[in-house]
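Bug #77: duplicate submission created two jobs. Keeping one. Sequence:
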Amino acid sequence: MASAVRIYRLHVAVEHIAPAIWREVEVPSNMTLTGLHGVMQALMGWHDAHLWAFEHNDQRFEPADPDASAPLQPAVDPDQLTLGTLLASRGDGLRYNYDFGDDWWLGIKVVSVGKPQPKLRYPRCLAGERAGPPEDCGGPPGFEELLAARKNSRSRQAKELLAWAGPDWDPEKFDLTLTSKSLAALPAPRRLH
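Kept job's structure:
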């Protein structure tokens, strides 16, 4: 008999960035790591354009690289591994690595475990602070450079960086409505019975 689906409330924070960029999200325990990858993309406003992996204890879980000359199948397929097999209780966690060139690391911790609410749709974002780092900005060092350009936009390099980021980019703004729409668009079961 399969165990009942539980809802994990997760705290997700971008590592090596201050002030913190974080999100709180609820996801079902039967979500796969591939599904959680989609959630991380939606939470940060990224476009799924790079390689990714999860780490839990001393294990690494990532999809096979389609561009590798001799692609190796992962030891554990992230399409088959669910959160419920890795995380059991409050305080458990894992790490997410996105864009191995920029090397973004997100720490993911279980805040609470509960029962699904019949009228709620999962995954769902509850809160957050600050905008996700722009895709391809150069990782934490490039992000810091972009923030510095906002403070002193007189140099040619600063003007180029800000033009690249776009006029609507505001590092201090977190848009819960937009994030919720991105999560709702993910290909996953929405209501749990």
